[in-house]
Amino acid sequence: MTPMKWFYSFLKKYRGLICLGLVMTTAIAALSIVNPYISGVIVDEVIQAGNYDLLPVLIAGLLGVTLVTGILRFLYQVVFETASQGVLYNMRDKVYRKLLNEDFAFYNKKRTGDLMSRQTGDMEAVRHFVSFVIYVVYQYILQFMFALLMIFSVNAKLALLMLLVLPLTALNTYKQSKEIRPAFQRNRNCFSSLNAFVQENVSGNRVVKAFAKEDYEIEKFNKENDKFRDSQIKASHVWMKYVPRFEILSYALTIILMSYGSYMVIQGQITMGDLVKVNGYLWMLNTPLRMAGWRVNDIQNFYTSIEKIYNTYKEEPKVHTPRTGGIHEKIKGEVEFRNVCYRADDEDIVMDINFKVHAGQTIGIIGSTGSGKSTMMNLLCRFYDTTAGEVLVDGVNVRKHDLYNLRDNIGMAMQDVFLFSDTIEGNIAYGRPNCSFEEVKHAAIMADANHFIQNMPEGYDTIVGERGVGLSGGQKQRISLARALLKDPAILILDDTTSAVDMETESYIQKQLKNIQTEKDCTVFIIAYRISSIKDSDLILVMDHGRIIEQGTHDSLLAQNGYYAETFRNQYGEIPYDLLKDRKATADGHNNSQKGGR
Ligand code: ATP
Ligand code: MG
Question: Which pTM does this prediction carry?
Answer without folding.
Answer: 0.76
